Amino acid sequence: MIHMKYCRRFYDYLYIDNNMGDICLCPWMEPAKAYIGNLMESDIFDAYNSDYSNKLRETMEEQSFRYCRKEACPHIQNDDLESITADEYKRRKQAAYYPTEINMAYDFVCNQSCETCRTGVFVPPENYPRQMDTIRGKLAPYLNKARRVTASGHGDPFASKYMMEVLENLRPTNPDLSILLETNGVFFDEAHWERIKHLAEFKLEIVVTINSFDKFTYEHISRGGNYEKIMQNLDFMSRLRESMKLTKLVNSFVIQDRNFREIPSFIKTSFDNYAFDNVVLKPVYQWGTMDERVYWFKDVLNPAHPYHQEYLEILQDNTTKDPRVYNFGGDSIHEARPYPCAEEHQRTSSKN
Ligand code: SF4
């Protein structure tokens, strides 16, 4: 029987990438190929069923996945894409598609400006409120009947009045809806919870991105964060999880030079001191937001990095084998890259 790798993102996922309304099937595809339309100009249904979107779908049908970025996609790195028969694939194909999983990544408002994400605090342009309104209007018919709604990507939903309004007014008609909100946690307190607590009727998952329990490391990585506040809020989130108001609580850790030695203690503290269900380890990725030299120092998955060997040894720690730990990068390492200025430095020194 012929089997094929299947990724449902080609058929039911929609990622709204920015405040200009650019949309794609998956942000882990190559940026030059991923975009299928723009919400300021087109209708979601038309963009989702355009010839171009169907061309992207063909890359899965032919099993080349040629626009999917291996380093960015955890399913390719972990080789955990669903395997289905050709008959099952034919059954899943339809005449037309509409997104049932929507990631509202379009809002960049955040209280923090972590180096891996941005160079400074995001200042919204003048027309930002109008952009937020237009996108929200286009999404409305899809949001309330979706299978899964996510706010994970660029900003922090609890730090943004725009995203808080969307969540506060979300009245889903699908009782099986699951919601995932990714937050740095600083504003996930009782006051913000009051505004969205009706969402606890659905499957509600919170992903926290604190990256370290150590005050010094936290303050270095989470620029603009508030260590005392996040520690209080982690207790609050744990209480919500223990009382089943949250369906899942996940602690996320972007692996970088400053925190990779803390991986075992991060995992242990998450499970022993708080009610986290999972820990997700994510290799730092160059989304085009970091200076290449900054990225080089952060990326300990690079075999040319002086800390690389130490990183591999830490990955052997028993804590990382806990089934509740998911490593986005699997056992993969990045391509060996010399320090970006090394060649230039060599050229200059040989001239002197
Ligand atoms: S990059 Fe990965 S998750 Fe995205 S469409 Fe391709 S296979 Fe699916």
Structure write-up:
- By secondary structure, this protein is α/β, with parallel strands linked by helices.
- It is 35% helix and 16% strand.
- The chain contains 15 helices and twelve strands.
- It has helices at 9-12, 31-34, 44-48, 51-61, 74-77, 86-92, 128-143, 161-168, 190-196, 215-221, 227-242, 263-273, 292-298, 308-314, 342-351, and strands spanning 3-6, 13-16, 22-24, 35-38, 82-85, 101-104, 148-151, 178-183, 203-208, 248-255, 278-283, 325-327.
- The strands form two sheets. It has a ten-stranded mixed β-sheet with strand order 4-3-2-6-7-8-9-10-11-12. A two-stranded antiparallel sheet has the order 1-5.
- Helix 12 links the parallel strand 10 and strand 11.
- The chain is globular.
- Iron/sulfur cluster is lined by residues 7, 9-10, 26, 28-29, 65, 68, 73, 75-76.
Provide the descriptors you would attach to this structure in a database record.
352 residues, ten-stranded mixed sheet, 12 strands, binds iron/sulfur cluster
Per the principal axes of the C-alpha atoms, what is the gross shape? globular
Q: Any idea what the radius of gyration is?
A: 21 Å
Q: What bound compounds does this protein have? A: iron/sulfur cluster
Structural class assignment: alpha/beta
